[in-house]
Design brief:
The protein is an alpha+beta fold. The chain is 41% helix and 13% strand. The chain has four helices and three strands; from the N terminus they run H-E-H-E-H-E-H. It is elongated and about 55 Å long. The two termini are 25 Å apart.
Length: 107
């Protein structure tokens, strides 16, 4: 959804769709995530377990005390300040009125 909006509106918010790697120093903690990953799989949000050579090929600068990690390939990185500024511009162009610094009493 965001990628389509960013492309259509040409928003510059430093969006990068390169995933996120959650690293572990203890094998038990890394393995404990497998149950959560099974739940995420139901929503196509599961991660890929990387250990050994596969892990260090993905991230060669890791320290040797890292035993493995879960790669969430669908995650993205963004600069939230730039995203919000860009979204503000989009809705203002569409005729919305933004009242800043005031109290909202009802919707």
């Amino acid at each position: 959804m965001y990628e389509l909006l960013l492309a259509e509106e040409k928003l510059n918010c430093d969006w990068e769709s390169n995933g996120i790697l959650i690293l572990y120093k203890e094998e038990k903690n890394m393995n404990d995530f497998a149950a959560t990953n099974e739940i995420l799989k139901e929503y196509d949000l599961d991660a890929k377990l990387l250990v050994g050579k596969a892990l260090f090929e993905k991230e060669p600068t890791l320290r040797e005390d890292v035993v493995g990690g879960w790669l969430h390939e669908t995650d993205s990185h963004v600069r939230p300040d730039k995203l919000m500024a860009g979204l503000k511009e989009v809705i203002l162009k569409q005729g919305a009125n933004i009242e800043e610094g005031c109290m909202s009493h009802e919707l």
